[in-house]
Structures are given as C-alpha cells and as structure tokens.
Amino acid sequence: MLPNLTIAENAFLGRELRKGGVLDKKAMTRSAQELIDRFKIDADASRKVGDYSVAKRQLLEIAIATSRNAQFLLLDEPTTSLEGDQVDPLLKLVRKLATEEGLGIVFINHKLDELFAISDEVVALVNGKVQIQGSTDRVDRTEVIRAIAGSDVVRRTSEDRAESAATSAADSPVVLSVKGLRGADLNGVDLEARQGRILGVYGLVGSGRTEFLRTLAGLLPATAGEVILFGEPYRPVNPADAQRRGLVYLTEERKIDGVVPGMDSVGNVVLPVLGKFKRGPLLNHRELRAVASGLLDDLSIRGDIHAPVVTLSGGNQQKVLLARALAQKPRVLLLDEPTKGVDIGVKSEIHQLLRKLAHEEGIAVVMVSSEEEEVLEVSDTVVTFVAGTCAGEPIEASSLTVPDLRQRAWEAA
C-alpha cells in the first residue's frame, strides 16, 4: 500500500479505469468504496492510505487483494505490527474470506494463539523441511514448539516456571520504585520492580507503556513524580546516565533506532561501551572482538557476525541487540516488545534467556509486550497500563488468564 495514494488509487494500481482515455477517478472510488463496505471496514476510499492506522491498512490491503480475482491469499506475518485489540478484526476478516468467499489462505505466523485460533491445518517448517503437519484439532501446541525450538527448551522452560513459582516476591528486594511519574503520555505511574523478577507490562495502544520505558531510559523528559533506583533518587537525563546507574533499555523498533544496519554484529554489540576498550587514544580491537564474540556465541547467533548486521534474520538481529544490552552489564533491564517479529524458535530462546537473567543472575527485568500469552508465560508478576496510568500491586502471572488481562485493560479504558 502506497501511503500517499488514496485507497481507490491503491486498489486500482496497474489496472486503472479509464473513460475516454482519462482516468475515471469517480468510478474507481465508487468501486473501491463498495469493496471496503462489503467487508465492513470503516474507511473512505477517497482518502489517502497514510491517513489510517497500521491496523486499518492491513485490513484494507487484504480486502484489496481479494478484488484481483485471487483464489489463494498468502499472508506473511500480517499481525506483527498490531496490538492485541487490533488483531481480532483482522482474524475475523481472514476467516470470512476462507469460509464465505472460498479463498485458500496460507497464514504464516509465529504467534501460536493466533495460528491455532484461525487455521484448519498447521504446518511447522524448520530449515525448509516440514516437521509437523496436521489439523489444528489434532496437533498440540507443545509439539509445534518442540519441533521448532527443541525438546530441551520446552523441558527447561517448564522447570524454570516451576522454580519461579516457588520464589515469592517478598524474597526479592525492590530495586526500582516509581511513584506518580508524569511525562509524555504519562499521567501518574506507580510501580515497583524487584531484583531477580520479571515484571510484565500490558496495555492497549496509547496506554503509555513505551513512553514509560523511554522516560526511565532518559529518552523522554519526566515532568513530575519520584523514581528511586537502588535506594537513591533517580532523575533520568539521557541513556548514558541511565547506563551508568545500571539501567539499560532495549527498543521496540530495532530497524529504526536499534541496530546500525551497515555495521557488523561485533560493532553493534560494543557500540555503547567503546570507552571500556580505550587504551590511550586507541581501541583495543582484540579485546573488543573477544568480548563481543563471546556474547554473540552465548546467544547462538546464526550467520556471519562480521558481515553487516542487516544480512542477518530479524531474530538474529534481535539477539544482537540483546547482546548489546548485556555488554552494558544491566542491573535493571527495560525491554519493549523483545520478541516482536521473530520466529517461535528464537522467541523460545529469548524467553529462556530472560528467565536466566532474572532468576539466576538477579537482574530486574521490566518487559512490555502486546502478546497476552507472552506476558503470562514469561512474567513473574504483571501490571496493566491504562491511559498513561498504572497503579495497584502487581499480580502474580500464574493467577491470571488472557481474558483477565484484556478485561483489566479494556474495562478501565
């Protein structure tokens, strides 16, 4: 979809309607409007695509694809950029196309809850080979995870969850205390993060979750409130100041403000800690490469770490960013959508890493995620953001369900 063109112009791109040799814009707009009305999409065909949200654009793109006499529709990660409450309309549209319009649909997705909710049949691919194939009512989710990530990951995940459940929050000291924090899209945030625990942060689009992390990291100004970090007052100034205090932030948008695409993985990892490798006016490249390579090896990066990082898969690029975060030796780790756009295998590896960092190394992890199942599976405790506010005690993740999460976020909104 081209954002500077109207919905109608996008719909008829390459097959424009003409009348007397001139573009018949009225006919194209009328036809496009009939199409989107048919699928009950609230949009104006005469408006530019860029006027609409990412979620609405996804719906429009799918609807337009059906107007090209398609018999099969191939959807590659259509919900990656969508939040939890934006996903349902898209899934309903896809189901409608299959059951009512008779289209064959290939729905590529790494989110198992969506995959099992919409599919009639599931196929798991690893290295280009089919590992599992069968109807969704006969294939178990654990089988899919085991096929892609390996049985060892599944076993260790279960063991770690059991160990975490046995450790109460009362046994862990508070390392980050936030009271009445206000700033960009923040209207009073109160919460605590504890050493060795993973605090999951859930909320709808615009609830202030990302702004909260960026404020703590010194990327957005705080206008009011109190932050206590390791028992001392903390007023975030910039990311370098946050890093010196042991607080490290991992961005949601790795392609925008995460990796440096033309730089290799080694350079990306050590970028914020180059000062540690200075020997007079020069850098000790041997030591630098050794430290970076060790971190990359620990995270099982697949690909050439000396080639530009952009040549790696999205999952491996995310691992590079995690390695960069670890190079800064965090005591509090702020993660914004840490598994966005990665496959199931890498997601399981990242989940396992986060549990290790928290439960074995004692790092306080604050994780923002739009995936309800991820929030409940990875977190020890959960808080909910609503309209820039967060109050109340964190709730044990083991006592919550996906409907509980949605109710807490939606009812208050």
Furnish the topology, listing elements before pairings:
Layout: H1 7-11, E1 18-19, E2 22-23, H2 25-38, H3 54-66, E3 72-76, H4 84-99, E4 104-108, H5 112-118, E5 121-126, E6 129-135, H6 141-149, H7 151-165, E7 174-183, E8 186-194, E9 198-203, H8 209-216, E10 222-229, E11 232-233, H9 239-244, E12 247-250, H10 254-257, H11 265-270, E13 278-279, E14 282-283, H12 285-298, H13 314-327, E15 332-336, H14 344-359, E16 364-368, H15 372-378, E17 381-385, E18 395-396, H16 402-412
Q: What can you tell me about this protein's structure?
A:
This protein starts with 6 loop residues before the first helix and ends with a helix. The chain has helices at 7-11, 25-38, 54-66, 84-99, 112-118, 141-149, 151-165, 209-216, 239-244, 254-257, 265-270, 285-298, 314-327, 344-359, 372-378, 402-412; strands at 18-19, 22-23, 72-76, 104-108, 121-126, 129-135, 174-183, 186-194, 198-203, 222-229, 232-233, 247-250, 278-279, 282-283, 332-336, 364-368, 381-385, 395-396. It contains 16 helices and 18 strands. Helix 6 crosses helix 7 and helix 7 runs parallel beside helix 14. The protein has two domains: 7-108, 3-Layer(aba) Sandwich (Rossmann fold); 154-412, P-loop containing nucleotide triphosphate hydrolases (Rossmann fold, 3-Layer(aba) Sandwich).
Q: Which secondary-structure class do the elements indicate?
A: alpha/beta
Q: Quick one: how many beta strands?
A: 18
In percent, how much strand structure appears in the residues?
15-25%
CATH fold-level label of the largest domain = Rossmann fold
Helix content: 25-40%
The low-confidence runs, each spanning 5 or more residues with pLDDT under 50, are none
